[in-house]
């Protein structure tokens, strides 16, 4: 069955089309291994990544302009918990990849991979809680959203990233629910798309963290 | 030629039967396309009535418009609008037309309906996102319209919402309290909707093309929607954070766009160090690509429709597609030309003028290709063809003034005058709407299964075509003699002698607007009483004409089209003595 589909795709591509099955509704996907399966949710995440990169590029350029346009930019010490948060998010990308590796090893590793996914989910949640603590620390120092342009951009950047990450957490939660329902990685869609988004959130945070370290 | 599906298909959603799922919260791209079209139609008529009010006030500043005082007692006491209320209505005219008409009609409405069919797909890649995209747009529309009914009415800061006027709140003038809040929230919601829509268009084009539908075999309209969706994805992704920063300046006391030491209504504003120019940069980084979001789909629609009526292949299909891609790319490098008089460094103005002049090259190539394709044509003068020709005319008329405005030295004089009003109405608004009209007369049979009235269509075309020239051509003259824009009345010794020109424009605008009622009547009458449309009434080649009118729920009745040709096969030896080949026509030797 899996081979049929791959042949089908090859024929479609030879004729000039995209090669994906010419149906639009997510269908019961054939039982091919995780890595070979074409999924349009992955295309969707790639496109979304372009949009998100653009959003954060706009905010970055706004920050550079705003910092240079007046003399009121005040630097402040980033809360220490952000270092821990960064490690947590890096670690969560590793746990996600471990879960995928277990899935590829076969269906008998299914419960192990589910456990790794749940750990990833918990790490994601911890990161958001950590960001909340960082905001509390800053508020304790009297640094609020409107205190200074630097604190304004700090809150805007971290909140925008946390909002996007909450989207990823909801997506991962839904993926775990779907995996639990189907009981099989091969019959569940959106695994690679979710992991792609998760790693992107990780990379985006690393970029923001560097920017914040340099500018705040 | 179709092949019956052999794929392991299990439809996740089948044709719904209940009213709500079928017509309201529908996942079907065709219904969503019609919903966008309906929303654009409502918006365009509101926007048009607003332009009537503005024009009447400009030409007859003392005329009492009876119902206006009911809409806003403070804004139009006794039915005569205050200068501030003039600006409020001007803001709403621009906002409704740019966002809810020029973005929604040629791109979201026709793109939703026809992009999946033209590439042989059953639906969009993400039908749920698609439904969310429309209803989010609708929410944005409701929030925007709500600003008519709050104290002080809509904002006076224009559709570009220049800071600090848009950022400081009610101290700065009428409409800048709750009205401006609603504007910023509405546009932020609109951004989210447009991002969802663009994501869907791109994924659908990349992933769901039928067998044989290579990229170069896609109809020009599909290419235009695809390129436009890439532009929209990147442009709205910038406007969204800009709107968020604007909202924060307004409600959270931040200082992104508000400078220090600003005193309004004798009150020192509690802000420091923000940059009004930063808003302009962020806004126009979106705003200039937005111009192409409005016009590219119409160019694609015209390029798709024109060969059907010339019965000749369009010249230079690759050059046309290349020009669209080039415009998409260059559209991100020219935003500064909206800011020549903003106080920006004059050196930057010269830098921005270069790509602005370069972007006229692909635009000129496209125009020349469309025009040259008319040479030797056996033209069929049906209404869609007339609007295609009208499009070429108004696009050239509006485009030529762009060459002048691209020079910073000339723009410094012309920027704040009616010359610019003439330029962008011709090249962006009227040209884009002519594409929408051409598309409507062309695709109505496919969308509703009935033909539109040709005689009403021709009346509509000629009245509109002559009307828009009477409205916008004299504005070039007004601009050249120095008639400033954004003023609500021209009463001083210098501008008062120009009032007769304004009266001529106003009468022309009223008549041209009234001619749109012919179009509206034609839509309604034809929907119920028009002659029943065959599958392919215009003898066109693209995939939507190979299915029934209107198409079934899954577009091709459970079959998957296979594509053997590009969309340009006109003037050839077709089957049964015809002069065209459908994209699905199998080669003779197969």
List keywords for this structure.
heterodimer; A: 216 residues; mainly alpha; 6 helices; 74% helix; elongated; disordered N terminus; B: 590 residues; two-stranded antiparallel sheet; two-stranded antiparallel ribbon; 16 helices; 2% strand; globular
The gyration radius over C-alpha positions of chain B equals: 24 Å
Outline of chain B? globular
What is the CA-CA span between the terminal residues of chain A? 56 Å
Q: Describe the biggest sheet of chain A?
A: none
Structural class of chain A: mainly alpha
Write structural notes for this entry.
The complex is a heterodimer of chains A (216) and B (590). With 216 residues, chain A is mainly alpha-helical. In chain A, 74% of the residues lie in helices and 0% in strands. Chain A contains 6 helices and no strands. In chain A, helix 2 runs antiparallel to helix 5, helix 3 runs antiparallel to helix 4 and helix 5 runs antiparallel to helix 6. The longest helix of chain A has 34 residues. Chain A is elongated, with a radius of gyration of 21 Å. Chain A starts with a helix and ends with a helix. Chain B has 590 residues and is mainly alpha-helical. Helices cover 60% and strands 2% of the residues of chain B. In chain B, strands 1-4 form a two-stranded antiparallel sheet. In chain B, strands 2-3 form a two-stranded antiparallel sheet. In chain B, a hairpin with a 2-residue loop joins strand 2 and strand 3. In chain B, helix 2 runs antiparallel to helix 16, helix 5 packs antiparallel against helix 6 and helix 12 packs parallel to helix 15. The termini of chain B are close together. Chains A and B meet through helix 1, helix 2 and helix 5 of A and helix 6, helix 7 and helix 8 of B.
């Amino acid at each position: 069955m899996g081979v049929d589909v791959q042949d089908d795709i090859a024929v479609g591509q030879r004729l000039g089309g995209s090669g994906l099955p010419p149906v639009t509704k997510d269908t019961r996907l054939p039982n091919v291994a995780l890595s070979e399966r074409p999924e349009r949710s992955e295309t969707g995440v790639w496109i979304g990544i372009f949009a998100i990169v653009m959003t954060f590029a706009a905010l970055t350029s706004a920050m550079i302009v705003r910092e240079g346009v007046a003399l009121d930019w005040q630097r402040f010490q980033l809360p220490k918990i952000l270092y821990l948060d960064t490690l947590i998010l890096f670690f969560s990308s590793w746990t996600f990849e471990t879960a995928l590796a277990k899935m590829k090893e076969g269906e008998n590793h299914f419960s192990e991979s589910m456990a790794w996914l749940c750990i990833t989910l918990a790490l994601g949640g911890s990161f958001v809680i950590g960001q909340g603590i960082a905001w509390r620390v800053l508020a304790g120092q009297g640094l609020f959203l409107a205190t200074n342009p630097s604190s304004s951009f700090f809150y805007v950047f971290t909140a925008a990233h946390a909002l996007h990450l909450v989207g990823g957490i909801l997506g991962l939660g839904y993926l775990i629910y779907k995996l639990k329902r189907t009981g099989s990685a091969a019959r569940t869609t959106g695994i690679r798309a979710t992991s792609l988004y998760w790693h992107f959130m990780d990379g985006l945070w690393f970029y923001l963290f560097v920017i914040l370290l340099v500018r705040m | 030629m179709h092949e019956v599906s052999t794929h392991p298909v299990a439809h996740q959603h089948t044709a719904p039967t209940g009213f709500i799922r079928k017509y309201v919260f529908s996942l079907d791209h065709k219904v969503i396309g019609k919903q966008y079209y309906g929303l654009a139609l409502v918006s365009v008529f509101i926007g048009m009535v607003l332009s009537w009010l503005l024009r009447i006030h400009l030409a007859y500043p003392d005329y009492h418009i009876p119902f206006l005082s009911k809409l806003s007692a403070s804004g139009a006491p006794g039915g005569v609008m205050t200068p501030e209320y003039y600006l409020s209505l001007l803001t709403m005219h621009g906002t409704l037309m740019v966002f809810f008409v020029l973005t929604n009609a040629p791109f979201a409405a026709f793109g939703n309906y026809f992009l999946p069919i033209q590439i042989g797909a059953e639906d969009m890649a993400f039908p749920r996102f698609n439904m969310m995209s429309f209803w989010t747009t609708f929410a944005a529309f409701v929030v925007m319209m709500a600003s008519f009914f709050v104290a002080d009415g809509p904002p006076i800061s224009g559709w570009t919402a220049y800071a600090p006027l848009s950022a400081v709140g009610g101290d700065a003038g009428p409409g800048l309290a709750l009205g401006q809040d609603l504007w910023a929230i509405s546009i932020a919601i609109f951004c989210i909707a447009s991002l969802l829509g663009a994501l869907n268009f791109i994924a659908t084009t990349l992933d769901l093309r039928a067998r044989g539908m290579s990229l170069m075999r896609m109809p020009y309209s599909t290419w235009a929607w695809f390129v436009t969706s890439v532009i929209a994805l990147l442009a709205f992704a910038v406007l969204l954070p800009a709107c968020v920063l604007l909202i924060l300046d307004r409600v959270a006391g931040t200082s992104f766009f508000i400078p220090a030491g600003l005193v309004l209504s004798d009150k020192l504003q509690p802000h420091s160090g923000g940059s009004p120019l930063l808003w302009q940069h962020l806004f126009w980084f979106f705003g200039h690509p937005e111009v192409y979001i409005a016009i590219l789909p119409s160019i694609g629609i015209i390029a798709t429709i024109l060969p059907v009526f010339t019965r000749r292949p369009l010249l230079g299909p690759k050059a046309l597609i290349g020009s669209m891609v080039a415009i998409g790319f260059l559209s991100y490098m020219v935003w500064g030309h909206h800011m020549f008089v903003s106080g920006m460094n004059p050196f930057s103005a010269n830098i921005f003028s270069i790509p602005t002049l370069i972007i006229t090259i692909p635009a000129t190539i496209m125009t020349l290709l469309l025009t040259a394709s008319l040479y030797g044509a056996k033209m069929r003068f049906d209404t869609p063809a007339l609007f295609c020709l009208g499009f070429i005319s108004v696009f050239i008329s509006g485009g030529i003034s762009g060459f002048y405005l691209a020079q910073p030295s000339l723009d410094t004089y012309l920027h704040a005058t009616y010359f610019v009003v003439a330029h962008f109405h011709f090249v962006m608004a009227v040209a884009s709407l002519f594409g929408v009209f051409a598309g409507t007369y062309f695709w109505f049979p496919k969308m509703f299964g009935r033909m539109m009235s040709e005689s009403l269509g021709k009346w509509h075309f000629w009245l509109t075509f002559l009307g828009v020239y009477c409205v916008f051509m004299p504005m070039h003259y007004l601009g050249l003699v120095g008639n400033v824009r954004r003023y609500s009345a021209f009463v001083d010794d210098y501008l008062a002698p120009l009032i007769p020109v304004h009266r001529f424009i106003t009468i022309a605008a009223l008549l041209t607007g009234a001619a749109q009622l012919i179009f509206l009547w034609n839509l309604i009458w034809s929907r119920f009483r028009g002659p029943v449309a065959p599958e392919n009434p215009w003898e066109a080649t693209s995939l939507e004409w190979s299915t029934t009118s209107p198409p079934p729920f899954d577009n091709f009745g459970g079959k998957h089209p296979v594509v053997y040709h590009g969309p340009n096969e006109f003037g050839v030896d077709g089957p049964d003595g015809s002069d065209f080949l459908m994209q699905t026509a199998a080669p003779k030797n197969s």
